[in-house]
Specification:
With about 400 residues, the protein is an alpha/beta fold. The chain has 2 domains: about 5-185, NAD(P)-binding Rossmann-like Domain (Rossmann fold, 3-Layer(aba) Sandwich); about 195-395, Orthogonal Bundle (N-(1-d-carboxylethyl)-l-norvaline Dehydrogenase, domain 2), CATH 1.10.1040.50. The protein has helices at about 20-25, 40-60, 65-70, 80-85, 100-110, 125-130, 165-175, 195-210, 215-225, 235-240, 240-255, 265-270, 305-320, 325-335, 340-350, 350-365, 375-380, and strands spanning about 10, 30-35, 75, 90, 115-120, 140-145, 155-160, 180-185. α7 links the parallel β7 (about 155-160) and β8. The longest helix has 20 residues, at about 40-60. The chain is globular and about 60 Å long. The chain starts with 7 loop residues before the first strand and ends in a 15-residue tail after the last helix. About 50% of the residues are buried. Bound molecules: nicotinamide-adenine-dinucleotide.
């Protein structure tokens, strides 16, 4: 199938992600079938879409008269049969439960035309396993939007073990038609690209805090005002939600073992209900809004720790042929708002400097989190230490 053949998209799950994905598709002219389990949930989703479209109109990004036209392209329904029979493409955004997703995919497979491509917005589950719940695993891929889909420019496109080239290509092309930048994750690995880099960054900061070596505000001040990242690490953790980080942490531990061993602090906070922004408290008190990160503490934390674990994980992604440095950098810039990607930063700082930092941290904490990736060691031993040497992750 060519991307031009796609006229109608089905979105399954009208929650935080699904309603936004439906809106993005409708704004680009696609007819959309939006499925959820009750009319009440669907009505709430339609109200949210209307609210968001009005905001777009207020900001003059769409014409006021377009609001109703776009809304008119979306058909909410509790029946797969009604909206799937003439659809060409599906994005599933139901809760992160493997059995539920498999059931939904079996149902989509049964009700959608033979040519249709089925994708999942899962953050952590196996695309391959979900695809095998259908009779068309070659037409199943991951299409991982970022929150909120209406505003975030990145889509990670994930190739399952059975996904064929044509499917992958259509998902990439559709992502572009939706106005997004697709980055291909060539293997069905847990965490894909962005979460794979983010988790060790959280791990490093959490362990340092857990061991009483740093204060939350010190880390966040350095990350925000020295490294220039849009949010502090603890601030971002609160924003994402400690429950989500806990769940993703479990998946990563299962996939990568001791290297992804979660800091006990996370489970402790989840048990205490300190889930972050949505609970009013996490690492910070959110009851009066966004926390103020003090500027004056910016020298109190070594930001190279963060860059070292990020570069190390990037090296694992390159070594395992999951993604190229350029894609990793694009994903982190668009998915998390980093001003430069981890590979660009590593080349600038020096791979030798970051490798030494990892070795120092590994010796100090004896945590697998800091064990250097063999590829990083290889680059440094070849003299590929980054920009200054003319070769690092990139060639200069
Ligand atoms: N929230 C995020 O930041 C984020 C970001 C990227 C990816 N994701 C992934 O997107 C997916 C959805 O996450 P969310 O945050 O939107 O969840 P959510 O709980 O807000 O929404 C899920 C929706 O699915 C509906 N649902 C439940 N069972 C269903 C069924 N059988 N058929 C149809 N709909 C059903 C629920 O009623 C709910 O409206 C998950 O796989 C999650 O991992 C989430």
């Amino acid at each position: 199938m060519a991307v031009e053949q796609i006229k109608k998209v089905v979105v399954v799950g009208a929650g935080a992600m699904g309603h936004g994905i439906a809106q993005v598709c409708a704004m680009k002219g696609y007819e959309v079938g939006l499925i959820d389990i009750s009319d009440e949930i669907l009505q709430k989703a339609m109200d949210k879409i209307k609210w968001s479209l009005n905001k777009f109109a207020e900001k003059r990004r769409i014409k006021p008269e377009d609001v109703d036209v776009i809304l008119g392209r979306i058909t909410p329904s509790t029946s797969y049969e009604d909206v799937c029979k003439d659809a060409d493409f599906a994005v599933e955004a139901a809760p992160e439960k493997i059995d539920l997703k498999k059931k939904i995919f079996a149902k989509l497979d049964e009700t959608m035309p033979e040519h249709a491509i089925l994708t999942t917005n899962t953050s952590s589950l196996s695309i391959t396993e979900i695809g095998r719940a259908t009779r068309r695993p070659e037409k199943v891929a991951g299409m991982h939007f970022f929150n909120p889909p209406q505003l975030m420019p990145l889509i990670e496109v994930i190739r399952g073990e059975d996904t064929n080239d044509e499917t992958l290509n259509v998902v990439v092309e559709l992502s572009k038609k939706l106005g997004k930048t697709p980055v291909v994750c060539r293997k069905d690995v847990r965490g894909f690209i962005v979460n794979r880099i983010l988790m060790p960054i959280f791990g490093d900061a959490f362990w340092a805090y857990y061991k009483g070596e740093v204060k939350i505000e010190e880390v966040d001040s350095a990350i925000k005002y020295k490294a220039g990242l849009p949010m502090g690490i603890f601030e971002l953790a609160d924003y994402i939600g400690l429950d989500i980080i806990h769940d993703v942490g479990k998946v990563m531990y299962e996939a990568y073992g001791e290297r992804a061993s979660p800091c006990p602090l996370v489970e402790q906070m989840v048990k205490e209900g300190r889930l972050g922004q949505k609970a009013g408290r996490g690492f910070y008190d959110w009851s009066k809004g966004r926390p103020r990160i003090p500027f004056e503490l910016l020298e109190e934390y070594d930001v190279n720790r963060t860059y070292a674990v990020a570069a190390n994980e990037a090296a694992f992604l390159v070594q395992d042929d999951v993604a190229d440095p350029k894609d990793i950098d694009t994903a982190m810039k668009l998915g998390t708002g980093w001003p430069s990607g981890p590979c660009e930063m590593a080349d600038k700082i020096g791979l030798d400097v970051l490798l030494n930092k990892l070795k120092e941290l590994h010796a100090k904490y004896n945590l697998e989190l800091y064990r250097p990736c063999p590829l990083l060691e290889e680059y440094v031993s070849k003299g590929w230490t980054g920009k200054k040497a003319g070769r690092g992750f990139y060639q200069y």
